[in-house]
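Can't paste images in this forum, so I'm doing it all in text. The chain is below; anyone willing to post the predicted structure tokens underneath?
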Amino acid sequence: MKKLLIVISGILIFIYACKKDPATIAADPYAYDPTPYNLQIPKVLGWTNFPIPNDNPLTIAGVDLGKRLFNDPILSVNNSQSCASCHTTLSSFSDNRRFSIGALGHVGKRQAMPLFNLAWADRYNLTNHKYFWDGGATDLERQAIAPILDPTEMANPNLSSVIDRLQQHPEYPKLFKRAFGSDSITSVKLAKAIAQFERTLISSNSNWDKAERRERLRTQSELNGFIIYSTEKGDCFHCHGNASSPFFTDFVFHNNGLDEMPKDSGLMRITGKPEDFGLMKTPTLRNLSFTAPYMHDGRFKTLMEVIEFYNSGTKNSPTVDPMISKNFHKGGLNLTPIEKIDLLNFLLSLNDSSFVGIK
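Text version of the structure:
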């Protein structure tokens, strides 16, 4: 009996000696961490939750990884260009150049769209064509991958070379382990991480939003401009949303009368349907001061040029939107100089300086 007690005591001492003491042993900073990311959805009229894929929930580790990948030139073929090279914070995640220049020096054919409030397209656009000017991506995950392979953008010949580069990096395997539970990097995880970060890019603190929250009063000119926007006078709301929509886009596609014969096939490139020729995704009107130049081809440098185009410069074509063509008989909107200024002041009230880092 005495010998048995000695044996048991020895075992207990051995177990105690081998037990890890969390107070003295540092925690693994790269251990899998599924802590949810607390996404803040604005609590005023019109803002709703957007659907998040069940297989890609937002986590702190996933968003952090996506942000790092978004800003890392490692994703380009020659380590010269990141997503952020053409989607800069100061430009509201757009590009202040008419056309971006890719990793190999190739010039793009479309102006870089801003990246914010994107994920609401999953709620309000129920088609398979949601992202990019021409609807070429059905979800944010596919949207995140496309520029990596585009020969005029990051110019990688395939994803396997990118994955190999990330796998051999001294930190990325550990960061993927922290975000997804394994240090084995795949293209699916790459897309998920970037998409997680992009879903957190929410712009909702413009002067217009502050007025919605009763934090400021709108000027009379802003109110006059909003009346023009939201009535047949300016006819903006048909494509950019009515008074109850905070997104200032309908998330779908229109031919807005830029050319009698559109030079870019737009949505038709994806669908193959002649009726989609020249249709482009409606951009948001938020943060316009930061996202110049304007239109899919960046042809307009100023907001007043855009207003004047809709006032008197739209052109007919076989697929032009009825909301545009209905004004042809009277030569356009026929806004007065004061009305143009009022509309401009309303549009300027949609700028969210805090989103681009301006206090």
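The domain at 207-356 is CATH 1.10.760.10 (Cytochrome Bc1 Complex; Chain D, domain 2). The first strand starts at residue 253 and ends at 254.
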